[in-house]
Specification:
One of its GO terms (cellular component) is cytoplasm. Helix content is 35%, strand content 15%. It contains 16 helices and 13 strands. It has a 5-stranded parallel sheet with strand order 9-8-7-10-11, sandwiched between helices. Strands 1-3-2 form a 3-stranded mixed sheet, with no helix packed on it. It has a 3-stranded antiparallel sheet with strand order 4-5-6, with no helix packed on it. The longest helix is centred in the first third of the chain and has 28 residues. The protein is elongated, with a radius of gyration of 24 Å. It starts with 11 loop residues before the first helix and ends with a strand.
């Protein structure tokens, strides 16, 4: 399928259509001209920063970045600074960092395509703030839902403090989260930018929900592309009810969604090498999500003292129990001690509780589930890893977070790093060049027979700014290697 942005017409006449409403047109034009004063004047109500041309899908953020064009020798430093200020102002007012236009480009995608590194980084930073804020709001909503009398969840308080107090990574625009003075865990949002000019928080809860609806489903280790009129959403419960098919080096569900494929073999091999660098026998290993058994076969080759597998899908469990499987009852009985080699039947959320109660710890843990959102991965490494991972152990996961476009991948690299730090974990990202020569087009090559791809990053167009460029047909997969801090 041709890339609609490959030969894009980035002129103002092509991006702001004649049918665009006058009010929207004024904001888009001011953003395009990098007229900071006019932009500030026009952004006088919530939602104005994320208006869109009804024909092109152009937002003020798209316009401000697109107007810069590609870097050139005659670039005017003053105009570039005005562009940066315009982008900053729009983000301050709640511009949606991952809104897509009619070419399926986010503002960050435009900045990347044009080679505007500073503006791209502003979009990434905004994405990280937004995603961290959503995590805080979700936690607050859970606390606030207890009881009807309001005792267990009071209104979220917005507090003004002096400008320059220092913004935390967990808040959007220039907001930080602080604890209540009485020690309760319900958070407050604190405006650290100073709101004398606007007098209000720039992005209210309704706008946050709107942005959440626009997200590119940056949702699990195995990325779930956004649903549309022809694709129903994939979630854990639906996946566990679906019928799976093993064939031609791939595992797909009954709707043709790719669950796991043989192209991941090199990623799995390098993951094992990173988790068990010395390859010494006698290690304790936990793998969550069996799939095609690729990584478990590799783990078994290291002759572990303990090898536990958690799998919840009935179809996968049936496959494991089949005579052709290497991990059936005979494998379990071959362990060095009763229960040393075992496939646990059930959801990891339940099984891990059982393992914690039994006092199990592991030298290497790998996490690779399907149909779950990012909150579940985050819960695993904040609530379970501290108890299950040995003090000198290593943890990793299949990193398909936001793998439909580079900016989403970059945002979730940073978000995951922050949440891992919250769990007391340090992460080292090992960059792996993955051969995408057979994965370039939907429905062709290794994607033949797969309706929904869980990895769609291409090579040169998606190469991250500030990083080396992989060779043709290669993309850079970021393998997380996590150990306890200190």
């Amino acid at each position: 399928m041709p890339d609609p942005a490959a030969h894009a017409d980035d002129t103002i006449s092509a991006r702001i259509s004649p049918s665009c409403p006058a009010e929207t047109q004024r904001i888009l034009t001011a953003a395009w001209a990098h007229d900071v004063a006019a932009v500030k004047k026009l952004l006088d109500a919530p939602g104005r920063a994320s208006v869109q041309d009804p024909t092109t899908g152009e937002t003020p953020l798209h316009a401000a970045i697109r107007a810069c064009g590609a870097p050139a020798e005659d670039d005017d430093p003053a105009d570039l600074e005005a562009a940066r200020q315009t982008v900053h102002e729009l983000l301050l007012w709640g511009a949606i960092w991952n809104d897509v236009d009619d070419r399926n480009e986010t503002p960050g995608c435009v900045a990347q395509r044009l080679g505007r590194v500073e503006l791209y980084n502003l979009c990434v930073e905004a994405g990280v703030r937004a995603e961290m804020l959503f995590g805080v709001l979700e936690g607050y909503e859970e606390l606030g839902s207890v009881g009807e009398d309001g005792e267990d969840g009071e209104d979220l308080e917005v507090v003004d403090v002096e400008a320059g107090a220092g913004a935390g990574a967990g808040a959007d625009a220039d907001m930080v989260v602080v604890s209540e003075e009485d020690g309760d865990e319900a958070p407050e949002l604190v405006d650290v930018e100073g709101s004398g000019q606007n007098g209000a928080v720039q992005e209210d809860e309704a706008e946050a929900e709107a942005e959440q609806d626009q997200e590119q489903q940056l949702d699990g280790p195995r990325f779930q592309p956004p649903k549309d009129d022809t694709n129903a959403d994939v979630n854990s419960e639906a996946y566990l009810r679906s019928k799976l098919t093993y064939s031609d080096g791939k595992l797909v569900d009954e709707d043709g969604n790719g669950v796991m494929m043989a192209w991941e073999t090199d990623i799995m091999r390098q993951s094992v090498d990173a988790l068990l660098p010395d390859k010494q026998p006698g290690k304790r290993i936990l793998n969550i999500g069996f799939g095609m058994g690729i990584i478990d076969t590799m783990f078994a080759e290291t002759k572990p003292a303990c090898h536990h597998i958690i799998e919840a899908h009935p179809g996968v469990l049936e496959h494991i129990a089949s005579p052709s499987s290497k991990f059936g009852s005979a494998w379990e009985e071959s362990g060095p001690a009763p229960g040393a080699f075992k496939v646990y039947n059930g959801k990891w959320q339940d099984v891990c509780q059982e393992l914690l109660q039994q006092g199990h710890t592991y030298d290497a843990i790998y996490f690779d589930t399907f149909g779950e959102d990012y909150s579940q991965l985050r819960m695993f490494f904040t609530e379970f890893i501290p108890g299950l991972l040995d003090g000198q152990g290593r943890f990793s996961f299949f990193n398909g977070l936001g793998a439909d476009r580079r900016i989403c991948y970059d945002v979730y690299t940073k978000v995951a790093e922050l949440h891992l730090a919250d769990a007391g974990l340090d992460v080292d990202w090992k960059v792996i060049d993955v051969d995408m020569s057979h994965l370039a087009e939907a429905g062709k090559g290794e994607w033949e027979g797969v309706k929904r791809r869980y990895w769609t990053l291409d090579s040169k167009r998606s190469a991250p700014l500030g990083f080396r460029l992989a060779a043709d047909n290669l993309v850079e997969y970021r393998l997380p290697i996590c150990t306890f801090l200190g």
